[in-house]
Amino acid sequence: MDNEQIYYRTIPPVKLIRYIILVILGVFVLTALTTSFYTVATDEKGVVTRFGKFDRITEPGLHFKLPAPIELVQQPQVERIFKEEFGFKTLQAGVQSKFGAKNFDESLMLCGDLSVAQVEWIVQYKISEADKFLFNIRNPRKMIRDVSEAVMRNVVGDSSVDEVLTSRRAEINIQVKERMQQILKLYQSGIQITDVILQEVNAPDLVKPAFDDVNAAEQDKDRYINTAREDYNKVIPKARGEAKQVIKQAEAYAIDRTNTALGDANRFLQTWTEYKNSKDVTRRRLYLESMNRILPKLEKKYIIDSDVKGLLPLMNIGEGK
To answer: For the segment 98-115, what is each residue's pLDDT rounded down to a tens digit?
Structure first.
């Protein structure tokens, strides 16, 4: 009886092999079904490799592929904007952002005027070509940081510390962005730099008091220059206007005197012509005209007759007025 129970409970070798084959087939079918379909999100692209070699790129949506490990898919986020911070680190973003310790190895730079500045900046980038991003570079983040730091040090080294602080900030952002993009394109990295933004630019703590004094002196210089220009704009245009006014008045006076002199000369010539024709009449007329101009200006008039031997009675001519 015991031998018979043992016989019925033992599975024959043929059936065992059949069960193993069925299990393997089931696992294969289940694996094929679960790994043959994949979904690409709207901000992603699917990069499919066949036996480890790049095969194709698929757009967002549901797709079919050969089961793993024949074909594998990676889905990088091509629409997302990534950010790298240099010289500082944001621990918590938001209304009250929190920042970690400064990284002076990255931020301390030598400017073109041999001044040392602490430069902090941000690089924003996105994946433009998913296949190149995945297969052409080993560590994209490290490469971007190395390229950005090298380019920023080069551009800052061509500028004075005052230019980095004020006048060339926008230009430096553009130059660093363009140079980084050229290098990344040369590497065929599949990365697009969207923006480079200079953050804080300060002097190191050891020289900050002297640096602040220099900045204060520069501001005083600019203020004095602006004040001088303001005074210049007030005084010089006014003086130029007054000078032009005097010149115009002088020109008008010269024209008036010239015309008056020409008129007097013409009148004299006409009078001389009339005098030659009739001397007595012309002489009397000139005498009367002269007296007519002179007598009204006199306050008191005394008329003396040369033939009278005694005192001439006073004639109050004009007193009635």
So the answer is: 556 677 888 889 898 888
Cβ–Cβ under 8 Å, residues 113 and 161? yes
pLDDT in tens, 123-136: 999 999 999 999 99
Burial (CB count within 10 angstroms: exposed 0-12, middle 13-18, buried 19+), residue 293? exposed
| SS3 label, residue 25 | helix
d(CA 251, CA 257) in angstroms, rounded, equals 10
Cα angle 168, 171, 174; round to 5: 150
Residue 58 has pLDDT above 80, yes or no: yes
Rounded CA separation 162/214 (Å): 10
Q: What is the CA radius of gyration of the chain?
A: 53
Please state the length of the chain: 321
135-173 confidence digits (pLDDT tens): 999 999 999 999 999 999 999 999 888 888 888 889 999
Closest-CA residue to 121 (of 174, 189, 182):
174
Average pLDDT for the chain: 82
| 101 alpha carbon, distance to own chain's centre | 31
